[in-house]
Amino acid sequence: MAAGLVKRVLLASPRGFCAGVERAVETVGRALSVYGAPVYVRKQIVHNAHVVRDLEHRGAIFVEDETDAPPGSVIVLSAHGVAPSVYRRAASRGLTTIDATCPLVTKVHVQARRYAAEGCLVVLIGHAGHEEVVGTMGEAPESIVLVESVEDAEALDIPAGTPSAYITQTTLSVDETTEIIDILKRRFPHIRAPQREDICYATSNRQWAVKELLSEVDVLLVIGSENSSNSNRLVEVAHAAGVAAHLIDDETEIDECWLERAETVGLTSGASAPERLVERVCDWFRSRGVRDIASFSSVFEDVVFRLPVELRRAATPAA
Predict the structure, then answer these.
(1) Do 216 and 181 share a structural domain?
(2) What CATH number is given to the structural domain containing 175?
(3) Is position 183 within any domain?
(4) Are residues 222 and 283 in the same domain?
(5) Active-site pick, 22, 66, 131, 132
(6) Looking at the structure, do residues 7 and 33 belong to the same domain, yes or no?
(7) For the chain, how many structural domains are there in total?
(8) Is 45:76 a contact under the CB 8 Å cutoff?
(9) For the chain, is the Cβ count within 10 Å smaller at the N or the C terminus?
(10) Using the 8-state DSSP alphabet, how is residue 303 labeled?
(11) CA separation, residue 280 to residues 144, 197, 287 (Å)
């Protein structure tokens, strides 16, 4: 069989869960412990099918909209952030709202509000329809314009004399975003920039780890769901370097044809993919005779985010 040609599997590091995803998943689990099932979750808490199914088995009910949760129930808002209108509708229904928005996404929302309040046209670099982008644009819909590509950046029209600033989705390709920002700065020299870049540390680190790994491998497997932006970006990083790469949800989606000429396989996972899926893929290779499975480390991560304040208060016994 084709996988029998594979001699070695190299594991990119860092990979898998970031601090924001850890926090969001734990938030739903803690909410179930504090309030009991069911706990409603608006959208997917993170973009991974396995994580969502696990939480459903524990009593979480995922809904598309806060209006789908019964009045007076408990609802958790996903890690991707929401527009202010969501909070208002949740309050009007008497929902107990627990905000699991990643703190790094919250930072982008704060920037959007501040720039808009200062009279800036806010250029948001991101992907249309992504939940994070929808939530960010909802902070100041009259003041934000979306730019998705270098072509959009070249075509963008900002009237002379209009103050402007840019912000970005947190899960973008570092290289592509840099190219877009360079165009914006060239065309609009006075455009304001965030004090620190908006692409999150985990997205950057996972892309960097893949770049360092690519010279050692013949093909790259990326564990992540199709709707995971940061996972798709890892595939694109490999393709940009001329290395074949494939996005898989788990080991059942591996096509042995991909491995026909591969002696060394690289393996990584997006920021919303649990480590147990990496182990399952490793076991898939072990069952086909691969014994050399090793970590290829690049950056050490030690970021931790506290649980949402609403949950910490609810979990604290009254004096």
Answers:
(1) no
(2) 3.40.1010.20
(3) yes
(4) yes
(5) 132
(6) no
(7) 3
(8) yes
(9) C
(10) -
(11) 43, 35, 10
pLDDT tens-digit readout, 162-188: 999 999 999 999 999 999 999 999 999
Is the domain of 181 the same as that of 139?
Answer: yes
Q: Tell me, yes or no, whether 292 and 233 share the same domain.
A: yes
8 A C-beta contact, residue 199 and residue 5: no
Active site residue 132: yes
Same domain membership, residue 56 and residue 114: no
| Residue type at 157 in one-letter notation | D
- 182-224: per-residue pLDDT in tens? 999 999 999 999 988 899 999 999 999 999 999 999 999 999 9
- Residue 193 covered by a domain: no
Q: Give 11-62 pLDDT, tens digit per residue.
A: 999 999 999 999 999 999 999 999 999 999 999 999 999 999 999 999 999 9
- Tokens matching residue 180: 């877009």
Residue 279 belongs to some domain of the structure: yes
Q: What are the tens digits of pLDDT across the range 87-109?
A: 999 999 999 999 999 999 999 99
Evaluate whether 234 touches 245 at the Cβ level (below 8 Å): yes
Per residue in 133-157, is it b (16+ CB within 10 Å) or e — as a string?
bbbbbbbbeebbebbbeeeebeebe
Tokens representing residue 266 in the block? 């690289």
Indicate if the pLDDT at residue 226 is higher than 70. yes
Residue 11 and residue 296 in contact, taking contact as beta carbons nearer than 8 Å: yes
Sheet with strand 8-13: strands edge to edge: 244-248, 219-223, 264-269, 8-13, 292-297
Structural domain for 279, as ranges: 2-17+201-297
> Does some domain include residue 125?
yes
Among 71, 18, 73, CA closest to 41 = 73
What is the CATH classification number for the domain harbouring 26? 3.40.50.11270
Residue 1 pLDDT greater than 60, yes or no = no
